[in-house]
Amino acid sequence: MTPLIDTFGRLHNNLRISVTDRCNIRCFYCMPEETPKYEPRENILSFEEIERFVRVAVTLGIRKLRITGGEPLVRKDLPKLIGKLASIPGIEDIAMTTNGVLLAQHAQALYDAGLRRLNVHLDTLDRARFLHITRRDDFPKVMEGIDVAQKIGFGPIKINAVAVKNLVEDDIVPLARFGRERGIEIRYIEFMPLDSQGLWEKDKVLLTDTMLGMLTREIGPLEEIPDADVRAPATEFRFKDGIGQVGFIASVSKPFCLNCNRIRLTSDGKLRYCLFAVDETDVRGLLRDGGSDDAIAAAIRENVRQKWLGHEINTAKFVPPPRPMYSIGG
Ligand code: SAM
Ligand code: SF4
Q1: What's the pLDDT score for residue 75?
Q2: Pocket perturbation via mutation, ligand 1, pick of 188, 189, 204 by most ligand atoms within 8 A of CB
Q3: Whose CA is nearest to atom 17 of ligand 1?
Q4: How far is the centre of ligand 2, averaged over its atoms, from the C-alpha of 99 (Å)?
Q5: d(CA 151, CA 235)
Q6: What number does CATH give the domain 14-328?
Q7: Measured between alpha carbons, how far is 88 from 84 in angstroms, rounded to an integer?
Q8: What is the mean pLDDT of residues 60-64?
Q9: Would the pLDDT of 1 be above 80?
């Protein structure tokens, strides 16, 4: 079959799968403080439905998967899904993004199921600030999760740190030092307009250049890694002293849409060509109402065909997507 190429010539080989919209913590830049109205359970795709979707997507050239949520580890028996997906011929790479709270508990089963690559979300090494950001006092659990995952042998492990101005400035350097000590890349992610409470403003984004300046002044010079994958969202730098590297997801200050190779499946079975997409394609209906594999493939193609050139966060035309981050799958 011809590969998934959009009208701007971008080849799509990367699928992000959200397995739940539920979460066990409440990061303010994603979720409201009170438990939101979650998708009814019957609307959430089963493991069998996700597996079938992936089998069809593989025929169109999807090779890389990332499991996300909500918090993927609140989904019961997640290692079973990982095992099913890892055994699909054509899948070359599976990664997971997690907040780490339940990682220590599930790490071995995930590893045994074939998962190796992890992104653990951690914005700060300060317990009080972790509580302030996430509204939960789970910092020790996340640290334990990272320790256990490293001991088991997961790799690479990366840390996702959301960069919010006037909040995490004191965390940028300690996180990088921690990463250098532990052989973990810290990925600083500029705060994006995907929070459920409409708190985002451009002035609240801690920008990549500011963070680069802090790291250079306090740790030492960095150099951009020239051969890093141009289609990966992060721009990566290594410290010139040879110890460790950091990445920046500069969605606001330096959008990377021109290299995008990703589509997303939400936990309730909607296909999205962009994190910021307003329109989505229903595939749950096809999966449940006897849609053929060809019909599912056609829906994927059509979604990719509709893909826009890029989000327009920096323009007056920007409309935030109707779903917040936890419901799309970050
Ligand atoms: N619960 C998991 C976690 O927190 O990693 C997976 C889902 S979460 C939506 C995926 C990633 O989105 C997180 O690692 C976090 O770094 C990022 N994120 C959430 N809200 C964000 C926002 N408003 N701006 C930028 N990144 C955000
Ligand atoms: Fe949960 Fe992840 Fe959203 Fe934080 S960013 S509230 S951990 S889904």
Answers
A1: 98
A2: 189
A3: 330
A4: 7
A5: 28
A6: 3.20.20.70
A7: 7
A8: 97
A9: no
316 burial via Cβ count (<10 Å: 0-12, 13-18, 19+): exposed
pLDDT tens digits, one per residue of 114-136? 999 999 999 999 999 999 999 99
Q: Is residue 2's pLDDT more than 90?
A: no
Cβ–Cβ under 8 Å, residues 211 and 252: no
The tens digit of pLDDT for each residue in 154-164 reads: 999 999 999 99
pLDDT of 310? 86
Residue pair 264/15 in contact (Cβ under 8 Å)? The answer is: yes
- Rounded Cα gap, residues 190 and 254, in angstroms: 10
Give me the count of residues in the chain: 330
Residues 182, 176: Cα–Cα separation, whole Å: 10
For the CA of 326, the nearest atom of ligand 2: 8
Q: What is the pLDDT of residue 45?
A: 98
Q: How far is CA 227 from the centre of its chain?
A: 22
219 vs 222: CA distance, rounded Å: 9
Distance 330 CA to ligand 1 centre (A): 5
Q: What is the pTM of this model?
A: 0.96
Provide mean pLDDT across the span 100-104: 98
327 close to ligand 1 (CB < 6 Angstrom):
no
Inter-axis angle of helices 78-86 and 47-59, nearest 10:
20
Burial of 244 (0-12, 13-18, 19+ CB in 10 A): buried
Residue nearest atom 1 in ligand 2 by C-alpha distance: 23
Quote the distance between the C-alpha of residue 178 and its chain's center.
21
Q: What angle do CA 29, 34, 35 make, to 5 degrees?
A: 95
Q: For residue 325, which ligand has an atom nearest its CA?
A: 1
- pLDDT of 57 > 90? The answer is yes
